[in-house]
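User: For a benchmark we're assembling, each entry needs the component sequences followed by a predicted structure for the full assembly. Here are entry 17's components. Please fill in the structure.
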Amino acid sequence: MLAVAVGLLAALDRGVASVISPASVVVTLLGVLGVVQGVRYANARRDRKRLPTDPGEPERRAPAAVPGAELDDRIARVASPAPGGYRDRRDLRDRTREVAVAAVARDRNCSRGAAATAVDDGTWTTDPVAAAFFHKRAGYPLRVRLSAALRGRSNYWYGVRAAIDEIERIEEGEP
Amino acid sequence: MSDSRGDGIAAGAASTDGDSTEGKSADPTEGKSGNSTETESADAPTDREHRREVATDRWVGIAGAALALVGLGVLVRQPSLVLAGAVGVGYGVYARTGEAPTPTLAVTRSVSDESPAPGDEVRVTVRAENVGGTALPDLRLVDGVPPGLAVVDGPARVATALRPGTAVTFEYAVRAARGDHDWEPLTAITRDAAGARERTSALDAPTAIACTPELSAGGDLPLRGLTTLHHGRVPTDVGGAGVEFHATREYRRGDPLKRIDWNRRARTGELSTVELREERSATVVLLVDSRDSAYVAADPDAETAVEASVAAAGQAFSALLDGGDRVGIAALSPLDCWLPPGSGTVHAARGRETLATDPALAPTPSDDRFYRSLWLRRFRRRLPADAQVLFFTPLVDDTAATLARRIDAHGHLVTVLSPDPTTSETVGQRLATFERRQRLRTLRSAGIRAVEWGDDSFPVAVAAATRRWSR
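Assistant: Structure for entry 17:
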């Protein structure tokens, strides 16, 4: 572009053309071109993803899975307030509900049906967050919504933690 | 891992041949100064499998930097900058001319003990000789330590450079654990002198160790009342010879005098005979859950529940054989494992071998898929009609609990023995713990005996459960 502009100027004005030495211009242009292209090529290193061979850690024994690690992965996936992960949310809620129903039935010495009703309508606990986790219409308390919004978490994440805490309390026989 | 340059240099726990400080040198220069090298070898090259060849991208951008320098030198009319750029161009050309050499190595691996006891340290020595005609300016060797073994001394790898005819030796130690352990191929990574291209190959040097634990009887395992017709130690509801009172009945001609209830005779004048609870032997099958899901532990580096189950099954196997029962072994696994119930010294040896080295009970899970219905059909077909089942499972999924109930429902009394692999640090782990507890409760409410052990040893847990059951 610069070369074209200088060329046009030289064609229009003979004075300009006489000042510019053709050899000097060409060398300068080559230099500029070299710098620009060189920097471009050198920058390619930044964007290149290097994939070195990874021989792993053969010195370490194959690690064992920890029960619940896969559930933690799911919980981490649904911790974000972004929509999605419907299957993970449903599966986690179902499994937590099963455990909650069994714990309530045992704690209150009632039938599983009665315990399921208590869990579904939120009367199984005094914790509104744990209650809202299973209750279809009850919303989460305002403080939980605000905290979730500020910390970039989903309400669901708070709900599942509260429900597990509550189940533990029942399991341990705490009042 | 550091790069090494120059023939005969070894880095890490390694040395070239002839080094008296073999396996101890961590200084690359030490190997260079103290080692002699083999120059002739009759070794045949080890079978090699090419895995991958890639550019390392180490020199990416060098041509651009050189061009920029030349351009800048031209722009400011400085010959020194143009010259510096020309040097960079030289590097760029150098990086493009080389090819990663193909390693032609003769690899030998030796172990200090091929049949160690569990917990023993086994020293492994690996020697790789360059039997090809090409120098290997940058060679990294990473040994294929079996996944069930942990290295306890030294890295199982080395970085070096080898001229044709020279060799490198490195050494490390592994802690022996139960099972057959086969070494995987050694990985060789070679680079050209500039390090611009990299080739990965696998070199197969078969090596194996077999670690077979001794079986020790642990815990007087209470069996359920499904017995054979043979005399044994399991109390039954059948009256006859034994030690525990069962009932009295009318005297029949031929009853032994010592069994006549003389007190009653004195009181009423009637003759009656005391019957004792007959004790018979049982046929027991030890079923170990070794599906992929059973390879769990409270910590990734801890022993898995399969290890705990196999150890407990070994103790039960010895205790039951000593008590005169017929014992068999099976695995709930994608791989077939079945030792029919039997007794005697030869059977005891077979049982020990099965628990130690059967592939279905290996220290790491099988990649095969488990088909529950097929497995159950085959297991039921094999199970003797009078056999009861001791089922060792961590109960971390519903399948194990369902199978226990189904086997019990088919008339084979089941006792579940469950090592506890759960922990309660995260929300997911707590949920998994609650689910497992619930499975145990469900089994117990269905009339299936269940024993779990965690920090306690297996015999202690069995003794506690026995007291609970006898109340």
